[in-house]
Amino acid sequence: RVHGDFTLPAMSNMLQPQVILLKEGTDDSQGIGQLLTNIAACLGVVDTVATTLGPRGMDKLIKHGRQVTISNDGATIMNLLDIVHPAAKTMVDIAKSQDEEVGDGTTSVVVLAGAFLLAARPFIEDGVHPQVIIRAFRRAAQLCMTRINEIKVSVDAKPSAERRHLLEQCAATSMQSKLIHQQREFFSRMVVDAVEVLDDSLDINMLAIKKVPGAALEDTMLVKGVAFKKTFSYAGFEQQPKAFDNAKVLLLNIELELKAEKDNAEIRIADVAEYERIVDAEFKIITDKLDAIVATGAQVILSRFAIGDLATQYFADRQLFCAGRVVKDDLERVARATGAKIQTSLAGVSPAVLGTCERFEERQVGDERYNFFTGCPLTTTATIVLRGGAQQFIDEAERSLHDAIMVVRRAIRTPSVVAGGGAIEMELSRYLREHARTIVGKQQILINAFAKSLEVIPRQLAINAGFDSIDLLNMLRQKHTQEDGLWFGVDINNEGSICDCFKSFVWEPTLIKINAIKAAVEATNMILSIDETVKAPDNSPKDESALPGQRAM
């Protein structure tokens, strides 16, 4: 309707009801402000782990409940941090994915992601659309992959002795920043020996690390076979023999214990003779099983379930060894090593299901008794019996060995390496800067920013070592413009100097760097693509009488 010079709105438009989309208490934020808040939250997480990077990185002491963990492993620290910010949890996810995929580089991937977010922040503040930044960062990551594949050093075609040396150096490099770095030569040889025992599948579950407190780290032993802690035993166990040569092994997934049926069923009897027949029947069931086991010729009997006192004494009388309640993973490793087949029933059991090993023995390790299976014909398993002092120290040593094992495993699967010490990052930074000069528009500036953010790795290495990072980075930039400067990085052993990290044997599998850059870029792009954060209230009702809230959108 028109009234004078004004147009009045229709009555139907004035009386439109509110549209309720979100329940009361829901908090949502959008726009540049919430994006910058997400970036700040992620950078807070990065600051926590950045000081753990490199051979001179510091450790973190984290108290969770009554337990205390001392570690400088990025994935371990991120797992123990109780992060509640939804965007910051992305950093935890990329650290976990790096740990599961390659085992090492968990701190590097978080630090890189923080550097990329820091590089993107000023452009966001200046009004550059996030999708423009995302496209530039993805393009820069693709260029990095291309350059890495151009300069990587293949180890597949090298002689076996040189190839083994390369694998040992990769393992030693992964231990440079760990508590066991002073024993890295000892452990790097052990790790390579352990991984080379595995079959072509390189199944990590076939490698076990058993922790026995006490003694020195150098007392750690590698068992090319299976070793596990003595299980709970019944009376009669001490009468059993504890060693066999050319032992025959039977593996069971059943219980060998006399069960009173009166506990499982209601039985009504009229006289004592009927009760005696029931007891005799129960006894015959268990003895028939034991007779069937002995008939196979087995000398070592292992079961996932309990082997009771009757069966234990039965085997002791016949000079056989038995162990019940064996952990499933240990039982499967014994099966893989000896060739035994795990039995779920004793009906028709025969000698064909038995496994063999040259030597079985139970011996003392520290304060514990351990069962050892060695000289197995199908040895594709190994066990590292790790010794050490305090429990926190031995736990960190186990994490360090796990990282080294994963690195060697990946180096075998993808047989190529690059130099560490910040050398590969500096080379990629130089390459991107040169490539950016061939691009016009915003992409040039953004790729230059990406290139500068790659320098965070050598910078943080220098800072954590107490060096002057500005001078070192200037020296590295100048050196990487020269033909012989490809593998130059931070010299951790000499303050204020740089070195050829490849000649210094600071090597890392190519996959570690490729996966770290890809994961960091994807995490950065995911954070930048979030334009609204919605936090729903707790679903548990606090006041039943309260009216449902309304929220207009």
Structural overview:
Helix 10 links the parallel strand 11 and strand 12 (321-323). This protein has helices at 11-14, 32-50, 74-80, 89-101, 106-125, 130-151, 160-174, 184-197, 272-295, 309-317, 328-338, 391-413, 423-436, 442-454, 456-464, 469-479, 510-528; strands at residues 2-3, 6-7, 27-30, 60-64, 67-71, 153-154, 207-213, 221-223, 225-229, 243-252, 300-303, 321-323, 355-365, 368-374, 382-388, 416-419, 488-490, 498-500, 507-509, 532-535. The chain has a six-stranded mixed beta sheet with strand order 9-14-13-10-11-12, with helices on both faces. It has a three-stranded antiparallel beta sheet with strand order 6-16-19. It has 553 residues and is of the alpha+beta class.
List keywords for this structure.
553 residues, alpha+beta, six-stranded mixed β-sheet, three-stranded antiparallel β-sheet, 17 helices, elongated
Can you summarize this structure?
The protein is an alpha+beta fold and 553 residues long.
Largest sheet: 6 strands, mixed
Low-confidence residue ranges = 543-553
The radius of gyration computed from the alpha-carbon positions, rounded to a whole number of angstroms, is: 32 Å
As laid out across the biggest beta sheet, the strand order is 9-14-13-10-11-12
Write down how many β-strands occur, each being a DSSP E stretch of 2 or more residues.
20
Instruction: Describe the global form.
Output: elongated
Strand content: 15-25%
Distance between the termini: 28 Å
Average pLDDT level: 84
Helix content: 40-55%
Oligomer: single chain
Question: How would you classify the helix and strand content by structural class?
Answer: alpha+beta
What is the count of helical runs?
A: 17
